[in-house]
Amino acid sequence: MLRRGLNRLFGGDERRVDSRTVYVGHQPCPSTQAFVPPKFCDNRIVSSKYTVWNFLPKNLFEQFRRIANFYFLIIFLVQVIVDTPTSPVTSGLPLFFVITVTAIKQGYEDWLRHKADNEVNNYPVNVLENGRRTQKESKKIKVGDIVEVLEDETFPCDLILLGSSRDDDTCFVTTASLDGESNHKTHYTVPDLESDLEVLNATIECEQPQPDLYKFVGRMHIHKDGQEPAVRSLGPENLLLKGATLKNTRVVYGVAVYTGMETKMALNYQGKSQKRSVVEKSINGFLLVYLCILLSKALVCTTLKYVWQNQRGQDEPWYNQKTQKEKEANMFLKMFTDFLSFMVLFNFIIPVSMYVTVEMQKFLGSFFITWDRDFYDREIQEGALVNTSDLNEELGQVEYVFTDKTGTLTQNNMEFIECSIDGFQYKYQDSRTELDGFCVTDGPVSKLQQKAGREKEELFLRALCLCHTVQVKEAGQGVGFADQVDGVDVASAVEQRGFIASSPDEVALVKGAMKYGFTFLGLESKSMKILNRNNKIEKYELLHVLNFDPVRRRMSVIVRSPDGETLLFCKGADSSIFPRVRQEEVERIRMHVERNATEGYRTLCVAYKRLTDEVFARVDAELREARLALQDREERLVAVYNQVEKGMNLIGATAVEDRLQEEAAETMEALQSAGIKVWVLTGDKMETAKSTCYACRLFQRSTELLELTVRTLEEGGRKRGERLHELLLDYHKRAVQDAPPPKGGVTRTWSSAAQEYGFIIDGTTLSLLLNASSDVVSSNYRSLFLQICQNCTAVLCCRMAPLQKAQIVKMVKNSKGNPITLSIGDGANDVSMILEAHVGIGIKGKEGRQAVRNSDYAIPKLKHLKKLLLAHGHLYYVRIAHLVQYFFYKNLCFILPQFLYQFFCGYSQQPLYDAAYLTMYNICFTSMPILAYSLLEQHICIEILLENATLYREVAKNAMLRWGPFLCWTLLGIFQGLLFFFGVHCLFGNSALQDNGQVFGNWSFGTIVFTILVFTVTLKLALDTRHWTWINHFVIWGSLAFYVFFSFFWGGIIWPFLKQQRLYFVFANMLSSVSAWLVIILLILLSLLPDILWAVLRKPRGPHAQQKKSAGQSNAGGPQSFSKPLLMRTLSDESNTVL
Amino acid sequence: MMASSYNAKEEDGHHSVSAASGPSAGPSAKSKKPDNTAFKQQRLPAWQPILTAGTVLPAFFIIGLIFIPIGIGLFVTSNNIREFEVDYTGVDASSPCFTCSQTYSWNSSIPCKCAVSFSLEQPFESNVFMYYGLSNFYQNHRRYVKSRDDSQLNGDKASLRNPSKECEPYRSHDNKPIAPCGAIANSLFNDTLELFYIDPNGTRTQIPLVKKGIAWWTDKHVKFRNPGGNNFNLTVVFQGTTKPVNWRKYVYELDTDPENNGFVNEDFIVWMRTAALPTFRKLYRIIQKKSNMTPTLPRGNYTLDVTYNYPVRSFEGRKRMILSTISWMGGKNPFLGIAYITVGSVCFFLGVVLLIIHHKYGNRNNSADIPN
């Protein structure tokens, strides 16, 4: 025990230092004298929250932390302690129900987690111990164990790869369960290890566990007898993550470095921060109002009670004397308990069931998104994905859409279009087989027009073939097949292979090079094989890969050519290459690059550099050193990279086309006419992004572009800061001050006469703008910038770093009016903005699944956004807004008669309704119809919503949950409550209501009011229902029938467990009275009259008018809409030429 | 490259196929593709009613046309009901019961009697119902309403011996349980009302008052039961209990008729049904129609003989005796008739207004739609 404590202490100490030491195979290393086996947590994964023992207290605690539950608990306790009018059951039962259901749900979820945990924890694993292979349960793996993993098994913990059955010391894994990327990734064994792992004596020093899946730094010290320990650097390519699966490799061995809850997978379990929707904020606001109403009601009643009691003979008349206890009670204590009693009596005004219904609506409602076949994409065989159901209604409130360009607006399906070598343009054209020209077997040697020197061409093509991280996917037939490539076989072999790469540009480039006769055959034991034009295989030894990263925007390889030269090939964005090459070469190519960019192509520049042996030796040493560094490895590597990649020779540039997503233009157009402002945030070049915007019709031909980029800043020849100031003011004047003030609610279609503005800004300028010299200036600029942007139809932000994207989203999110923002993206670089925005949408694109994992909703294609917002979002918003308003309304007119009754019963807290009715009203009688409504309602049917995007504006800015509509609903509730009570009160002026002269008592009074109430609120909902499916019919008429049936049943039996048989035959007697029938019918009709009038008298917009409109439209515009894609292309081409 | 372009073509092909033939396109159908059910696709067949002036107008007229006759019928019925009310509280010094109301004491063994005379201007046809009415009497006070034990009243022996705590402070007296317990029972209305017809020649004829059928049938036969079932010897059954403090007799002495004694006494049952409002009436007796020829209560002078037992002055209460005939809609209450006529007229009026609006507005709306 003590030792464990000490160890824990030690572990705690260790945790504080930023690296941990792992003894491979638990072998004490000779260098450290005292071998203390460090204590790490075991490999048990605990994702469950509860155990059998702590479930009840812990779960209850969790549940009562919610403010609403706590409130109801307090009410319940008051009922138990104080002598209150209603029995504790009336509020205890619903609360119990809610708590139990939630507990069961959470318990079930936890049970599933337990099961999953057990499955993972008890999975048998082979561990090498002292040279023997023993089988262990997964949870018993300790840090330092050497674990054997077979093909298709998942890794039980985070392992450092020590040995693989493959010859090239690699293994393939897929991380599908971690980040959804299903492609095979290559991981490498620690270089230069003895194959015999039993005698391996090594320690691994690595950083403390951290959740970033793609980062790992470590160092391995290999001890050999009597020798200085050899040091190897470890990176993410050596680390096999728990949860990933081994593929294409028979067996691997690895040493456990992180186990259990310290694995990267477990560390990534931590949920994202909760996003709250505006509806929830509205609910809380309304709740506060109703709480005030409740308190004031209780206060009024308490005051009046004591005023009334002071009258002669009213406090304690002879027929109604107080008990001894009541007489003795302290006056102020009595007042206080009276106040509490009134609170309890009226507490139904804030219903428990609303929370339950809202949660259920959200949970069940979100299924409609996953079920929607329109979101199903054939290519990826998946539909939409809902990661959170809390934000459904937020989809109907979006004001700003921030979209990524690559992969979102465009397909990220790259095609090599042309290249420019040494200033000459090469366009691949082969009329015979259009796109598939490369499979001509005799080799398309002569396709290049001989403009540049042949040497340059070949250098360029070799560069394309070498400078990448593409892998060749092996054909299914077996591994051996790939080895016998030569001659004629190659083409067919390549056809079957296909390439895998992290970025589609690279594949496009490699394929492009293939068209011109240079085929990349693959990487084998550190050498890249290229089949050149003469069908000869060239082997290049791959010395270093200088990885791509979005900050540098380029990547390089260092290879040794067959004739012994050391070459560096570099490719990257023009802006990052041009400064690093000799300037006289730039001008020739810049023209091509810019022209290609304006045509919407992605351009990359290719450069190379010869490295002398001395230089290489130095670079090699520096790189190795940097890779071994435990701290600041990234920074140090980048520093070395930057140092190497300069003074290069520019060879040429490539142009790759990225096609627009299907229906991208229509989607954008629909969003804009829905009143949503679309901002494109991209890391791409301005010209490329601009042309994409034109193609997507975000910018029209008539749109006046306001540019705020480095180029415009430098035009004036003055200091950037001054120019920025000047431009901002100028644009502000044009876009904000001179523009006519937008008329409220008037739909501005794109054809309207008003001048439209588009705004373009780039990353550099943005950071200049946001980080201006002083705070005052900065905030001033910021507000100017926002004002300009808000008056522009579309904003394009190019050259953005991921963090800048989030910065922009945050800025807009926090601007005046707190507009609802939505971010949509498909790549890792969009994650930050997806997390930042109110609603984050991931596209299940080609750039992996990080965006999807971090999103709230994921859809396969951009075009689905239209339906998601315009149809689903709109409907969800209307549904939940109506749900919330209706709930408050129905409880107001439920409780108001009870409040009014106090004036007629001596303020004695006598309930008007029977306890059963009080309890059941929200649970049974009125809950199902509104739930069905809130799931099924389509006040305007989906097709029309999709056709008329402008309908989206009708619900913009939380239109149905603002104070105006809330007031209307509240007034309606008050009106109906007054009507119910005083109508029945007038009837009871003479309580002889039956034809046999017998009289009705107070319970009959309450039952009549309650009957009117239940029928009115249900029929009110029926009036609001625009979409009557059989479910609505069933639920609405069903709950009314249930009410009648229940009342008969409840009053038909002497219930042995009830103290008082208050309702015995009250309902049946009521029905036998004609007057009761008449008053019920009259009052129901009268209370629904305002609603009917409102429905008739308000502007006949909504479905009727829309249907008329759409009928006309679909007749006229039917064929047009089918031919749209073509039309769009031509239009976008035109707009390009205009530019 | 070829592979991907082939995919694209295939996909296009699939699109056209799926558009034409629905869900069964290709082997991919059994993948994660959502089911094509109407419910999941939110395409359930639905009735989409739209409330427009056109649909509501006829409804308004129909409602108006139905409600106004009903209202008139109710109003006429209510007006035809004869109702006579006499206040015998004795507040004024001039009123006959003034003395009784002044000299009242619970303990006095000699009941105070007074006679109130009145005359009916019009004869009362058919059955006449005699009510007593109380004002400013809070039978709906919470402390009062809950002060009863329904299982005791239902004949439960255990509750007879040990009444519910709700009955406090009327639960036990002199260490004996009270039967029936509670404030409601304790304050049972115990004035005796007798009605005499004064012939024009001066003779007093007592009008027979029927006390059967004044309580709800279910109350009399199911909800209220004497303990011990059909044992008519109620004295034995109620042995060991005591009478409510304000009562003069034991519960088993309420009536001589065993069917109307003990807990099943109809006066008692009527009292136990607590009134909704502080001013209320309760059915006391029924005067049955004798023959078709003579009215039940002819025009003329009457005397109400009151045995004045029930004090109301202490809480500013009032006692009334009400004679009323009853129609199919119950007692006299003009409210319903007026309300129906009003609502009917309002609907009719709204119908007319809407018709006008609809004609003007509807046309304007149509013309406004087109340029949009």
From TrEMBL, chain A:
Listed cofactors: Mg(2+)
Residue ranges occupied by any P-type ATPase N-terminal domain in the UniProt entry: 38-91
GO cellular component assignments: early endosome; endoplasmic reticulum membrane; plasma membrane; recycling endosome
GO molecular function, one term: ATPase-coupled intramembrane lipid transporter activity
Key words of the record: ATP-binding, Cell membrane, Endoplasmic reticulum, Endosome, Lipid transport, Magnesium, Membrane, Metal-binding, Nucleotide-binding, Phosphoprotein, Translocase, Transmembrane, Transmembrane helix, Transport
Residue span, P-type ATPase C-terminal domain: 852-1099
Binding site for Mg(2+): 404, 406, 826, 830
Localization (cell): Cell membrane; Early endosome; Endoplasmic reticulum membrane; Membrane
Documented EC number(s): 7.6.2.1
TM segment ranges: 64-82, 285-308, 339-358, 916-936, 963-983, 1003-1023, 1035-1058, 1064-1089
Active site: 404
InterPro entries noted in UniProt: ATPase_P-typ_cyto_dom_N, ATPase_P-typ_P_site, ATPase_P-typ_TM_dom_sf, ATPase_P-typ_transduc_dom_A_sf, ATPase_P-type_domA, HAD-like_sf, HAD_sf, P-type_ATPase_IV
Enzyme class name: translocase
Catalytic activity: a 1,2-diacyl-sn-glycero-3-phospho-L-serine(out) + ATP + H2O = a 1,2-diacyl-sn-glycero-3-phospho-L-serine(in) + ADP + phosphate + H(+); a 1,2-diacyl-sn-glycero-3-phosphoethanolamine(out) + ATP + H2O = a 1,2-diacyl-sn-glycero-3-phosphoethanolamine(in) + ADP + phosphate + H(+); ATP + H2O + phospholipidSide 1 = ADP + phosphate + phospholipidSide 2
NCBIfam families attached to this UniProt entry: ATPase-Plipid (TIGR01652), ATPase_P-type (TIGR01494)
Protein family (similarity comment): Belongs to the cation transport ATPase (P-type) (TC 3.A.3) family. Type IV subfamily.
Protein name: Phospholipid-transporting ATPase
Gene: ATP11C
UniProtKB/TrEMBL annotation, chain B:
GO cellular component, one term: endoplasmic reticulum
Annotated stretches, region: Disordered: 1-35, 148-172
Biased composition (Low complexity): 18-29
Chief localisation class: membrane
A GO biological-process term: phospholipid translocation
Pfam family, one: CDC50
Residue stretches spanning the membrane: 50-76, 335-357
Keywords, alphabetical: Cell membrane, Cytoplasmic vesicle, Disulfide bond, Glycoprotein, Golgi apparatus, Lipid transport, Membrane, Transmembrane, Transmembrane helix, Transport
Topology with respect to the bilayer: Multi-pass membrane protein
Compartmental location: Apical cell membrane; Cytoplasmic vesicle, Secretory vesicle membrane; Golgi apparatus; Membrane
Biased composition (Basic and acidic residues): 163-172
Family: Belongs to the CDC50/LEM3 family.
PANTHER family, alphabetized: CELL CYCLE CONTROL PROTEIN 50, CELL CYCLE CONTROL PROTEIN 50A
Protein's name in the database: Cell cycle control protein
